[in-house]
Design brief:
This is IS5/IS1182 family transposase. The protein is mostly helical. The protein has two helices and two strands; from the N terminus they run ααββ. Strands 1-2 form a two-stranded antiparallel sheet. The protein is rod-shaped, with a radius of gyration of 26 Å.
Length: 82
C-alpha cells in the first residue's frame, strides 16, 4: 500500500522501466523517495527553531529601524535611535 500512496502523492504515475527488473528498480526508487522525504522533513523540524530565531531577529531589526529618526547633526543621514 505504501508504493501506491507514493505514486499518487509523489506524482509518479507510470513505470517506464522495462520488465521484472524495472519493477524491482521502481519499487526501490519509491522507497528511496519515501526515505528522502522523511529525512528532509526531520531536517526541517530540527532547523525550524534556528530559522524562527533568525526571522525574529530580522523583524526586530526592522521594527527598531522604523522607530529611529535621522540625526540632524550628521551630514550622512545616519539614524539616531531615540
Amino acid at each position: 500500500p505504501i508504493i501506491g500512496h507514493l505514486k499518487s502523492d509523489g506524482l509518479m504515475f507510470r513505470n517506464f522501466l522495462r520488465g521484472f527488473t524495472g519493477d524491482k528498480i521502481h519499487a526501490v526508487l519509491c522507497g528511496v523517495g519515501l526515505n528522502l522525504r522523511k529525512v528532509l522533513r526531520r531536517l526541517a523540524e530540527l532547523l525550524w527553531p534556528y530559522e524562527n530565531e533568525r526571522y525574529l531577529r530580522q523583524m526586530l531589526a526592522i521594527l527598531w529601524s522604523v522607530s529611529a529618526l535621522p540625526d540632524e547633526s550628521t551630514k550622512t543621514g545616519e539614524l539616531l535611535v531615540i
